[in-house]
Design brief:
CATH architecture of the largest domain: 3-Layer(bba) Sandwich
Radius of gyration: 23 Å
Number of strands: 21
CATH topology of the largest domain: FAD/NAD(P)-binding domain
Number of domains: 3
Strand content: 15-25%
CATH superfamily of the largest domain: FAD/NAD(P)-binding domain
Helix content: 25-40%
Low-confidence stretches: none
Bound molecules: flavin-adenine dinucleotide
Structural class: alpha+beta
Mean pLDDT: 96
């Protein structure tokens, strides 16, 4: 082992591998000697799904030197403002949003207290606390064309074509950041001193490095097959273990493009619907313990017909993807770190996989100078952090199911049973009957799901907290502030609705002339 980990070898050229390569290579001046090699099989294609990101992707793209205009133009990307949930609470066609913008005034005042206690009529929580509700409902873009690259009027992430995105990341890494790309199959892993990996045997020869990043997808060649680190199955909490995926053209190329991921619950899971510029990505996630592939395929066809898919798209055979919901007991073992599907995967609800890749790769990049000195203590810290993040993801996803009042299938009833509920979530739900989630519920400043996310899901799903803001000190002044924030949300909602373009209109303008350039910082 050299003083610092100078040569990082990444196994896998899917989104996880290429994002990791870009994030590490963008961090280090070439003169430091930190060198990144990515080896990927010419015979095993990347999984090719994973088309919804979080707003964090904007700062990742900026940092690795990709222009937003180029990204939107080449990846058929669209701007995602959150998720629209349908049929999750009762199955009667009800809708709620989990938008990316925080509730107004979130750092100072908990508007959820006043929404729960208040007199706001039938208006939903999201509608009352953020103007983003209005833009999502009307399919408007989160910014105008003259707003510079990566800046926003309303917070947004992306929907993207996964294949085109991996290609763009590859070109950027190789041509701008000096990453070495090897197209070869890895056939054997060689172990050296103290169980560290010494080299990978490939069809192009031996590749050796100081640190190995396992981005080999669900096959998990290094952390799973080589080191035998087990998967901690989450099947008893999150039942879904199958997905059926399709690409669906728009019936009319000028059709409106949704600015949210649509997640529509069905009897044994849910359908995702993601609008790209030239097509939709649609699929069904389901539990094989509760439904078979044939019945879900039929349900997916019914969904496609109901959402105006062309007849030939309805008839095509979807691609089946099988997975064991869970995450590794450890993500960092010896001189190997797992990032992406090799580290774990639970269903794509709330699209938490790519953001976890971004977070893991950023953390790894920060640690690189310390690795030669004390890799095992870094590994322990990394494992603790990411185990905590996985637990939060599981808990937050389970919230969507645990709060459902659907009784139309065994799937939904079992999801509501106490035996399938993580302990931490059960306790929080008890607390939140009497107070609304807020900053005290966040254990990290960079929490993946801040209290605001819990609020959107809880109150969107019909949960209520018995709070009495009238007993707070300075109650009148606080209530007055809450009223003015609620008014401000409505005022901004009207203003944005007048001035923001339709989502497709903005994307057409980006295609023709691009976003304004960013001002130098
Ligand atoms: C149905 C579904 C929907 C999803 N939706 C979302 C979403 O909306 N948002 C989100 O954030 N995430 C989503 N995900 C997760 C997302 O797809 C993945 O996190 C992402 O694509 C990263 O995959 P990966 O790079 O880890 O693996 P892969 O894309 O599978 O890449 C594996 C790589 O390893 C290489 N490899 C394998 N074996 C060898 C070998 N022997 N030698 C050399 N190379 C090898 C392959 O060639 C390939 O390049 C979804 C996942 C599924 C299943």
């Amino acid at each position: 082992m050299t003083e610092t980990a100078k040569h990082i070898v990444i196994l896998g050229g899917g989104t996880a591998g290429w994002l990791t390569a870009n994030i590490i290579a963008a961090e280090y001046d070439p003169d430091t000697g930190v060198q990144v090699t990515l080896v990927e099989s010419p015979n095993t294609p990347p999984i090719g799904v994973g088309e919804g990101t979080w707003p964090s992707m904007r700062s990742t793209l900026l940092k690795i030197g990709i222009s937003e205009t180029e990204f939107v133009q080449t990846c058929s990307a669209t701007l995602k403002q959150g998720t629209r949930f349908e049929n999750w609470a009762t199955g009667d066609g009800e809708v709620y949003y989990h938008p990316f913008s925080l509730p107004h005034g979130f750092s100072d005042l908990n508007l959820a207290d006043y929404w729960n206690a208040g007199d706001l009529g039938d208006r939903s929580f999201a509608e009352c606390v953020t103007p983003q509700y209005a833009t999502c409902e009307r399919g408007l873009a989160p910014k105008q064309i003259q707003v510079p690259e990566y800046a926003f009027t309303l917070n947004y992430g992306y929907h993207l074509d996964a294949g085109k995105f991996a290609h763009l990341l590859k070109t950027n890494a190789v041509t701008k950041l000096g990453v070495t790309h090897v197209l070869a199959d890895v056939s054997k892993v060689h172990a050296g001193a103290e169980g560290n990996i010494s080299s990978l045997e490939t069809s192009a020869g031996l590749i050796s490095g100081d640190l190995y990043v396992d981005c080999s997808g669900l096959s998990s060649l290094l952390i799973g097959s080589h080191y035998g680190v087990p998967l901690s199955s989450q099947r008893d909490t999150l039942f879904n273990d199958r997905a059926l995926a399709l690409q669906v053209p728009y019936a009319d190329p000028a059709d409106a493009i949704a600015t949210t991921t649509k997640a529509t619950a069905h009897q044994a899971g849910w359908f995702w619907d993601i609008g790209l510029q030239h097509r939709r990505g649609v699929g069904a996630v389901f539990s094989s313990r509760h439904a078979d592939e044939t019945s879900i395929t039929q349900a997916l066809q019914t969904y496609l017909r109901a959402t105006n898919a062309p007849a030939e798209a309805v008839e095509q055979s979807p691609r089946l993807i099988e997975f064991e919901p869970g995450y590794r007991h450890r993500f960092w073992e010896k001189n190997c770190v797992a990032i992406g599907l090799s580290a774990g995967f639970v269903e794509p609800l709330e699209a938490s996989a790519l953001v976890l890749v971004e977070l893991s790769a950023r953390r790894l990049a920060e640690y690189i100078p310390r690795l030669g000195v004390n890799m095992q203590s870094v590994a322990a810290t990394f494992n603790e952090e990411f185990t905590g993040r996985w637990r939060q993801i599981i808990e937050f996803l389970k919230l969507h199911y645990a709060l459902s009042q659907r009784t139309d299938s065994r799937y939904w009833l079992e999801h509501q049973s106490a035996s399938s509920m993580p302990n931490g979530l059960e306790q929080k739900l008890k607390d939140w009957q009497f107070r609304c989630p807020w900053h005290q519920d966040e254990s990290r400043v960079d929490e993946m799901f801040p209290a605001a996310s819990y609020q959107y899901v809880l109150y969107g799903m019909g949960f209520s907290s018995a709070v009495q803001p009238s007993i707070y000190r300075n109650a009148q002044a606080r209530a007055q502030k809450a009223r003015s924030l609620f008014d401000e949300v409505q005022r901004q909602g009207r203003q944005f609705t007048q001035h923001l373009p339709a989502h497709r209109q903005l994307l057409d303008a980006v295609g023709q002339r691009g976003f304004a350039e960013r001002h130098p910082q």
